[in-house]
Design a protein that fits this description.
This protein is of the alpha/beta class. The protein contains 20 helices and 38 strands. The chain has four domains: 142 residues, TIM Barrel (Alpha-Beta Barrel); 233 residues, Glycoside hydrolase family 3 C-terminal domain (Rossmann fold, 3-Layer(aba) Sandwich); 163 residues, Galactose-binding domain-like (Jelly Rolls, Sandwich); 123 residues, Immunoglobulin-like (Sandwich), CATH 2.60.40. Strands 12, 13, 14, 16, 18, 19 and 21 form a seven-stranded antiparallel beta sheet that branches. A six-stranded mixed beta sheet has the order 9-25-24-23-10-11, sandwiched between helices. A five-stranded parallel beta sheet has the order 1-2-3-5-8. It catalyses: Hydrolysis of terminal, non-reducing beta-D-glucosyl residues with release of beta-D-glucose.
Length: 843
Amino acid sequence: MSTATKFASANLDDVVEALTQEEAISLIGGHGMWHTAPIPRLGVPALKVSDGPNGVRGNHFFCSTPAKVIPSATALGATFDPVLIQSVASKLLAAEAKLRAASVILAPTVNIQRSPLGGRSFESFSEDPYLSGTIASAYIKQGDYINWTKRLNHSQAMIRSCLPEASLREIYLYPFMLAQKYSKPWAFMTAYNKVNGIHASENAFLLQDVLRKEWGSDACTMSDWFGTYSIAESINAGLDLEMPGTIKFRSEHHTAWSIHCRKITLKTVKERAKSVLNLVQRASKGCPEVLDGDGEERTNDCEEDTARMRDLAARTIVLLKNDRDTLPLSVNSLTKVAVIGGNAKAPVLSGGGSAALKPSFFVNPFEGIVRALSGRQVMYAEGARTSKTLPSLDYDIINAKGGKGFDAEWYSHDENDQPLTTPHKLLEVDETNIFISTSTPKEISTRWTMKLRGFMRPRDEDTKFEFGLTVAGRAKLYIDGNLVIDNWTLQRRGVAFFNTGTEEECGIYLLKKGVAHEILVEFNNVRGPAEGEVGDQGTLFGGPGVRLGGAPVINETDEIQKAVRLAAEAEVAIVVVGLNGDWETEGHDRTTLKLPGRTDELVTRVAEANPNTVVVTQTGSAIEMPWVGEVAAIVHSWYLGNSTGDAIADILFGNVNPSAKLSLTFPLRLEDTPSYGHMPSEGTVFYAEDLFVGYKHYVRSKVPTLFPFGHGLSYTTFDIDELVVTNPSGSDMNFVARVHVQNTGGRVGSEVVQIYVTPSSESKASHPVRSLRGYGKTHDLAPGESVEVEVKLDKLALSMWDAPHNCWKIEKGTYTVIVGRSAENVLLSQQIQVTKEQFWNGL
């Protein structure tokens, strides 16, 4: 019988009783970067976790296993379709986790987009807590026994989040509460920041009072990576597991000393250890083959999964505008199409940071459009550059054998800190954005050098080419033996590689037609000096990396003029613009809602040249669109993963009828956002908007928006009528809203019924005018077909947090149930009565 199978039936109380102090301490701190500690003596296997949320990376940032990358969380939220999300989690993500030998995915990120500027906004489902909670529940609840870790509360790193109790409960804890109620995850992850003065990893109110006592959760609680800041405080507060197991607080020596000093007790340590053992046992019961496997990471692409990812990506795309029924485009009526924009050919598939993955394949928008047009003339112009750093050269660099990427040589240093003449390790590296993290070779010296050698693919014509070099450490770029970039001698500090890297340094080199120019990047893991510093600035343990990007040098004015000329020649101009993982990433926030550089000018000029201009935007969150009234159609595609281009083409050419709705509000301008003036990237953040997050602010204040929460068009039309709402009854105050939905257009389509509820007419509290409390989705209604949609609601739909009584409260009075096409577009309403005030707690 295997180790995992045996442990699946073990009596945990007996195991805990048998633990030595040293073994108990080992269990409450990670073992290496991604594992829990094994206890071989007692048959306890190690459990492996892996990053999410839009795929499963595996153990390594460096030379990672190619992955299936699904759309960003904001895109998943836009489906308003928990059944679809549960299917994706079960059939794609769980299978991917098993291929990575992982039992727990560190996802989803259950946060609220209180501001679209948040660098990690793309990782969370919505600005609305109900939508976030129900989609999170579906993501977690699936049939294969891979489970999920949810990040607990607001996760801006190292800041102090100060917020009223009502908004903590009704906005930020609410989606976690729903996920616990409906899916009971095996694990929760704490955030980096302080919540009302106490770090989340030391916050007994969150970890004990709310999660365990009030909600009844028996989940394991773990810290975000390096998000533990104490020994006694975190253990006593209820944090079961410190992650990772490198450079950790809970070392055997320090934790044993804390026991000796009676800051903690062995009993408490064993309680935390039991929670970790419970997580391991659940994984042992659900997927023993993962824990007992060989630990090797694998990838497995198949036609079924590729089709599933393409279909999912298309179902997340939101049709924002469609004047004159410009879309869908008819392939048969087109002879010449212009595809324009910095995102059209760029490898934009996800946001940045720990969510970034290496795709097993990728289809860019240009490729998808060309495929769909079946040989018709497609013209291209970049127009205006949208990247923050120069694009990766993953498909431009080849090694000596002609394969993708570099030949790498890893050298140890001698006692004089000079690289040895014989490489310590040779390997092929198939990427040009290289984050070593902890993947250094065994027995290499503390300071080391890596030399990356390759060749640029030959060009069709002489090309002035601009290269960009970013490094966490120090690096130089040589081309044909010539020094082109020195990011070694003097550096500028930047935010790359999780805030350990430099700013990008650039250099230009003439690439000759037909010549495979030799590329050499030499870098090591020691920081060079910045201005005012002298000598090297120390070894980067765990965080060295180097990125080589590049693109042909362009005159942007000439390139915009080229784009305008091509647009004028074409029957339709498709402009693909947006952001990427440099702009939206872990580690720092955006500073503006504007698109990069001269993008807005490009869109305006192209629209002037061609009235049939369709704009495809690629972002994980909201952006400004000053040209919104100038273009015929706008499609918002989010970050879509591997099948980006094919999914966009499916929408543009009508193979899929769009049915997604915005999971967050697109404001007219940054100054209109509810958190404006209250969202610095460091220090103390006061949640001064209180309950009025997202659409709740815009509706209350009657502030006009660009596109409201819940907005999304279709290529067909729907009538929604005959609203009937039952009166709340029973201890859970259950009630139902029913509507009749009919497809009144000419195409098969799907529609979302959005149910909002107003506060009691007798309430004296300051509360949102309306809040989303339920939704239902029809699927593939044929023209003329109708269906009754039933949306079930309960006491949560009527409740608000009552701080004086420390519980939920349902006020008596008249409530209004609203059916909307969006948060701002009210279609139907009906009043219901609550005759008695009620208080409740728990789930």
